[in-house]
From TrEMBL:
Pfam families: Hist_deacetyl (PF00850)
Keywords annotated in UniProt: Hydrolase
TM spans (from-to): none
Gene3D superfamilies: Histone deacetylase domain
Single biological process term from Gene Ontology: epigenetic regulation of gene expression
CDD domains: HDAC_classIV
InterPro entries xrefs: HDAC_classIV, HDACs, His_deacetylse_dom, His_deacetylse_dom_sf, Ureohydrolase_dom_sf
Alphabetized PANTHER family for the sequence: HISTONE DEACETYLASE 12, HISTONE DEACETYLASE HDAC1-RELATED
Family according to the record: Belongs to the histone deacetylase family.
Residue ranges of domain Histone deacetylase in the record: 20-288
Family matches, as SUPFAM superfamilies: Arginase/deacetylase
Protein name: Histone deacetylase
Molecular function terms from GO: histone deacetylase activity; hydrolase activity
Length: 300
């Protein structure tokens, strides 16, 4: 059975101006349940992740400032919203949800976190709505417990996975592949194992062609036995922050290319949802739901 991490805190309300992006975390499971793609038993509710697991990836001083809610005003502005206890608990549950989903992926081939993909959080900073890097923490968790030997992180959010790149810059067991808008946030990029920067307004055919070529390179060079996939839908032409010009059909084909490759290679894959900021919430939810629909067709 395909398992999906979700918790009510995923849709935790933020100050005015930040609430809209959070709606998708409530609407995605509602839509999937309504249409019958999933049932309640597909969903599970994660507990908060433990401190020792966080400290395998994030520096102690940074974590303690998060934990104690003492992060400076400047560092909170870098994250993009004010820190509070509920927001921190949300992040802790998201991270444990990705860890739990990785276990389910090893057993079942694929598993999801409705939230996650917090790839801008580095070893000692938070940024771009990201406090802790859920997939990086989980990658270290798997390696430290000898549950996997080589990992490929496929990051197809429109923004570079700068935090993930920084965390694993000296770790040969983790191959980081980021395909992103070159002129988009973050404006100071880190160096991934394989970076594919894209010009503004890239459309379907060019994007998918580049993905096919570079995904093969990533698999060939990484030789993974576990895959993380960050499936942000901010690549859509309707996205307010994305600067690319993909149709919803191309976004779905992107997911199919990645998930089919994992299926064909018999590699477990954990999927976190990443960004999505289209003006119409229906575009965000439908594009994200397409990722689940594909997974249930391929792995279900």
């Amino acid at each position: 059975m395909i398992k999906i991490a979700w918790h009510p805190l995923y849709a935790h309300p933020l100050p005015e101006g930040h609430r809209f992006p959070m709606l998708k975390y409530e609407l995605i499971p509602e839509q999937l349940l309504h249409e019958g793609t999933i049932a309640q038993q597909n969903l599970f509710s994660p507990e908060p992740v433990s401190e020792d697991i966080i400290l395998s990836t994030h520096e102690k001083a940074y974590w303690e400032q998060l934990r104690d809610l003492t992060l400076s005003a400047k560092d909170q502005r870098r994250i993009g919203f004010p820190l509070n206890a509920q927001l921190l608990e949300r992040e802790l549950r998201i991270t444990q949800g990705t860890i739990d989903a990785a276990h389910f992926a090893i057993s079942n081939g694929i598993a999801f976190n409705v939230a996650g993909g917090t790839h801008h959080a580095g070893s000692n900073w938070g940024e771009g709505f990201c406090l802790l890097n859920d997939q990086s923490i989980t990658a270290n968790y798997l390696l430290n417990r000898n549950l996997t030997k080589r990992i490929l992180i496929i990051d197809l959010d429109v923004h570079q996975g700068n935090g993930t790149a920084e965390i694993f810059q000296n770790e040969p067991k983790v191959f980081t592949f980021s395909m992103h808008g070159e002129k988009n946030f973050p404006f100071r990029k880190e160096i991934s194992s394989l970076d594919v920067p894209l010009d503004d307004d890239v459309q379907d055919e060019e994007y998918l062609s580049s993905l096919n070529i570079n995904l093969k390179k990533a698999f060939d060079r990484a030789k993974p036995d576990f895959v993380f996939y960050l499936s942000g839908v901010d690549v859509l032409s309707t996205d307010k922050l994305g600067k690319l010009a993909l149709s919803k059909a191309a976004c779905k084909e992107r997911d199919k290319i990645v998930l089919q490759a994992c299926k064909d290679k018999n590699l477990p894959v954990q999927v976190s949802m990443g960004g999505g900021y289209s003006i119409d919430i229906k575009d965000i939810v439908d594009a994200h739901c397409n990722t689940y629909r594909l997974a249930f067709d391929l792995f279900g």
